[in-house]
Amino acid sequence: MKVALIIPRGAERNTQDLTIREILDVLQEDITLIGDDTEFVPNLGMLTLAGLFPGDTELHYLEEEYIPVDEVEEKLFGEHFDLACFTGYNPQAYRAYELAARYREAGTPTIMGGMHASGIPEEAARFMDAVYIGEAEDSFREVLEDLGKGTLKKFYRSPNRSELTVSPAPRFDLVPNLEMYNKIPLIATRGCPFSCEFCCFPNTYGRSFRKKNIDQVIEEIETVKKLHPRPYFSFSDENMLADHRYARDLVREFVPLGIDWECYCDISIADDDELLKLLADSNCRLVQVGLETLDPENMKDVEPWKGERIKRYPEIIKKVQSYGVPFMGMFIVGMDYDDPGVFRRLFGFVLDTGLAEMDFAILTPMPGTKLFSRLKSEDRILSEDWNRYTWTHANFKPAKMTPEELERGILWLFSRFTGLAAKIKKKQGCAPLQFHVKQQLETGA
Ligand code: B12
Ligand code: SF4
């Protein structure tokens, strides 16, 4: 069986390859600044799915943004496939549908999974032969069986209970030119017990927290080290360090490996000195933490417990960074209690706390989330064009400012920290959220 594993290109500036490389060329003088921070990451979802096919399957990993434009036609449609698998976030959905139409015309069955299809399966089902909702590990076998019998169903819904300890390793060997990616994604855990209003994870992965065996993670790291000359590991788990005992045991094993790595986690790491020391010793280059907002009122809609912690943010950031572990604060702007003063408040907070890195996003009501349903019922959704669902556009009516103020405000924030945003806006017409901002580089009031 010959299978196409397709990661369609994204909309607008989200392209990871050609557009960003073009910007790098234009901004020669800032090349070291953004060169460091631009993320080129292979698609872990597809590489995980690849591990679930029988060993004799001929798998083609086709990440459109990394295929030269004049070769796309040949690579995607130059030969017949027995199955075309698609993944994608919201801004990749339309391109997936466009490509699927061509495969279906040629008699190739199509299936789509991932964030967009899991959030809004009914839409995806209009363009695909089958839609897969949730994580692949526990039920993809059923798809393969049905495909063999010619009885592919329209919907497959994973119970999201897959035992990560027996999940196959991602197939990085399938990625052409792996060395050109500057971040290699892995996960050690999956799931988050919470259910924040704006978050798409409860839908895709359910709410139970699961872990891989430590040996399994180390083996995945070792495999990548054989394929990439100097891998930088980017752990993509929702909250990798949530279980502190597991986290300490895992990170301790990283110390002798001599790797550079980063992860997403929550502020509770600040309460665990042993873990902080291990993070520093193991060369953890960044902890990325969703601080979300500085206004506890906003958190009432997100997760009230998060609101109670806001006053501790400065002390937490200081403590984590005192161990030599850089802290990235990720903020969402446009929540219901945010007025136009929010941008200055965030700017001041970042300067006062000395956050090493920061990322700002415009609140985005991703389809399938509780936030989308609420704003829809309040008649506040302005656009359902998924190409705009990049966290850089105001797709809803904010409560205390205009959509234009929201878009201008976030751009102002970026430009305060780097001066780059203005240049990129000129080139691309929007805020550069793909570039995380490093504070030490340029600040200006
Ligand atoms: C790595 C990453 C990236 C990489 C992408 C690399 C790549 N080559 O695609 C980079 C940095 C480039 C990136 C960019 C963006 N990202 Co991003 N990214 C992530 C991140 C951190 C990890 C994704 C991951 O690897 N997960 C682990 C894998 C194993 O899970 P998975 O992909 O869901 O796959 C599983 C299932 O979904 C399922 N599955 C997936 N596909 C398929 C297909 C089939 C056929 C089947 C059966 C099953 C199946 O099985 C898999 C195994 O269980 C997530 C956050 C997160 N923790 O998930 C955000 C996230 C996916 N990104 C997001 C966004 C918004 C973006 C951007 C739009 C940001 C921006 N402003 O530009 C861009 C869009 C890129 C584009 N091309 O358009 C959102 C998506 C929201 C949504 N509902 O669409 C997320 C969820 C972050 C968030 N909390 O909002 N991102
Ligand atoms: S935003 Fe973070 S804490 Fe909230 S549900 Fe999503 S992953 Fe969990």
Briefly, what is this?
The chain is an alpha/beta fold. It is built from 19 helices and 15 strands.
How confident is the prediction overall: mean pLDDT? 88
Topology, number of strands: 15
- Kindly provide the name of the CATH class of the largest domain: Alpha Beta
Count the domains: 2
Radius of gyration: 21 Å
**How widely separated are the two ends?**
59 Å
Structural class: alpha/beta
Give the ligands present: cobalamin, iron/sulfur cluster
Q: What count of helical segments does DSSP give?
A: 19
- CATH superfamily membership of the largest domain, which one? Aldolase class I
Weakly predicted, low-confidence segments? 31-36, 421-436, 439-445
CATH architecture of the largest domain: Alpha-Beta Barrel
Describe this structure in words.
There is one protein chain. By secondary structure, the protein is α/β, with parallel strands linked by helices. It folds into 2 domains: 2-12 and 48-157, Cobalamin-binding domain (Rossmann fold, 3-Layer(aba) Sandwich), CATH 3.40.50.280; 16-42 and 163-437, TIM Barrel (Alpha-Beta Barrel), CATH 3.20.20.70. It has helices at residues 18-26, 31-37, 44-50, 72-77, 93-105, 115-119, 121-125, 140-149, 201-205, 214-227, 244-254, 273-281, 296-302, 304-308, 313-322, 342-353, 370-377, 403-418, 420-428, and strands at residues 2-7, 58-63, 83-86, 110-112, 130-133, 155-157, 184-186, 189-190, 210-211, 232-235, 260-265, 284-292, 327-333, 357-362, 437-438. Helix 16 runs parallel beside helix 18 (403-418). Mean pLDDT is 88; it is low at 31-36, 421-436 and 439-445.
